[in-house]
Amino acid sequence: MTFWILAPIMVLAALGILFVRKAVHAALLLAVVMISLAVLYAVLDAPFLFAVQIIVYTGAILMLFLFVLMLVGVDASDSVVETIRGQRVLAIVGGLVLGATLVVGLTQTALGTVVGLSDANAGGNIQALANLLFSRWVFAFEVTSALLITAAVGAMVLAHRERLEPKETQPLAAARRVREYAERGAHLGPLPPPGVFARNNAVDTAALLPDGRPAESSVSRVLAARGTVRSAPDLADDIDEVQRQLGVEPEGVPEGGGTSDATGDTTEEVHK
Amino acid sequence: MTEYVVLSAILFTIGCVGVLTRRNAIVVFMCVELMLNACNLALVSFAKLHGNLDGQIAAFFVMVVAAAEVVVGLAIIMTIFRTRRSASVDDASLLKY
């Protein structure tokens, strides 16, 4: 019964990994598959593997995936450009052939009667596994320790970054800014803050320049990559809407005049 | 018992297609994990079928190797991303030329 509930969920979640655009969603779908697998292990008389599956896979490996996704950046989305022509179609056809072969072959094979693990698990599943692990498979167990050490050292070596140039100190940064200003007229000071309007804490809204254009550099690069930046036309609509609610004639783009004049006009009209 | 093995075959196939079609290295890696998990399911169900715990031991070793592999693989992906600012499998083609 558990199987027939979990199997469709697992297949759907696994198919979802193929189709979702964002890697974070793929990781969450993979978590669904792995937790369902853990439950299936429990059904299959493997309580130790049930615990290990949850601790190692959903606990450790998936968290590692999520950490790397956050380091790499959520905006690193999948490109849909094919580098090898027809590769995607061939891959799907090949996958269907492989799946059909496996499924048809398996359904036509008689697997024999199920012996069941009640005898093998008589003294407890973990004790029975430990007996096997430390007798027949003890060499593989020892080799595993070497593998784990190698993996840990390898990860440390790969994650370590050799500093090729000296660290940029504050005087060096100041000198670089002035040099860039001299060479290409880059802005000397800090980037402008985002537009803060009365309606919300608008870090996602670009500040408006005096001529009404949005200042692109005032919004965080990450927000721009996620595509959650509110565009200036939207904002202009909002302003029009607010002005309409106040009973003020919506006007076009302010014509280069000082902002103090514009606000003065508005307040006057509201008071009328 | 057949249904468990069939499910593992289906999951393995989905993982295969994912490795072949997705371009993001991290998603490709997740699909490899899916294939390993599918094999584990087959091992555990065969253990029950034959009344023998060796299948569960094998699944346990697969999990250990998968954990080690994930650590090294993700470190490699991070290193490539650091130098090339991309996590796409198509961009890492320096060895080709």
Describe the structure.
The complex is a heterodimer of chains A (272) and B (97). With 272 residues, chain A is mainly α. Chain A has ten helices and two strands. Chain A has a two-stranded antiparallel sheet. In chain A, helix 1 runs antiparallel to helix 2 and helix 2 (23-43) runs antiparallel to helix 3. With 97 residues, chain B is mostly helical. Chain B is 79% helix and 0% strand. In chain B, helix 1 (2-21) runs antiparallel to helix 2 (25-50) and helix 2 (25-50) packs antiparallel against helix 3. The N and C termini of chain B lie far apart (50 Å). At the A-B interface, helix 1, helix 2, helix 3, helix 4 and helix 5 of A face helix 1, helix 2 and helix 3 of B.
- Helical segment count of chain A: 10
Task: Kindly provide the radius of gyration of chain B, computed on alpha-carbon positions and rounded to a whole number of angstroms.
Answer: 16 Å
Structural class of chain B: mainly alpha
Largest sheet of chain B: none
Compute the number of strand runs of chain B.
Answer: 0
Shape of chain A: elongated
Gross morphology of chain B is: elongated
| Main sheet: strand order of chain A | 1-2
Supply Rg of chain A: 31 Å
Q: What fraction strand of chain B?
A: under 5%
**Low confidence ranges of chain A:** 253-272
What is the SS-derived class of chain A? mainly alpha
Percentage of helical residues of chain A? Answer: 55-70%
| Mean pLDDT score of chain B | 88
Overview features:
A: 272 residues, two-stranded antiparallel ribbon, 10 helices, 2 strands, B: 97 residues, 3 helices
